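Problem 12. The chain below contains 211 residues. Write out its predicted structure in token notation.
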Amino acid sequence: MADDQDGDDRNRRVYLVGIGAGDPEHLTLGAVRALNRTDAVFIVDKGEMGAALHAARLELCRRVIDPIHPYRVVEVALEGVRDRDAGPYDNAISSWRDARATAYEELIGALSAGEVGAFLAWGDPSLYDGTLAILDDVRSRGRVEFAVEVVPGVSSIAALAARHAIALNRAGESILVTTGRRLMRDGVPDGVDNIVVMLDAHDAWHAFDDD
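Solution.
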């Protein structure tokens, strides 16, 4: 019986779907197909501060998932703000990831054999989003077996450049994608022609004179 159950567990599948900035028009056809194959959409509730983002996810599902497709929304409440000032940054991230890994393990473990679950990631799941790493943590624990499929999304970088009809680099130039924290700490590296700054809560660009 245990062997049969293990086989059933391996049939679980999790989509990690990039949803851009939440505009349904920015979803790829692949994202729409994935959501219409999903049995459970996992929504992480971050409390009042995340209420608008929570509503945007639900509205996105309503607009792109076929009304006749049976799916359920599974919501989980998690701490939404990492306290970066309470201690070392790496320790704060480790604690944040561990709490999510435990919650995600429970969500995926609740899928029935052969079911598909989906996490919705803002932007592109492969660019400054921690969900994929957390799913790796869950699998490394070895208690729940599942396959992961990543569906890329439209990043804020791509959306912003498109909105302003600009190219991020000229011919042959480099592009550095970094965070405000690292830019403040390390400055502008030598040989970098263009910089895209993510996660800049403290407006690091104010510290630089360059265009």
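Discussion. The chain is about 35% helix and 20% strand. Students who got a different answer should revisit the alignment rule from Section 12.3.
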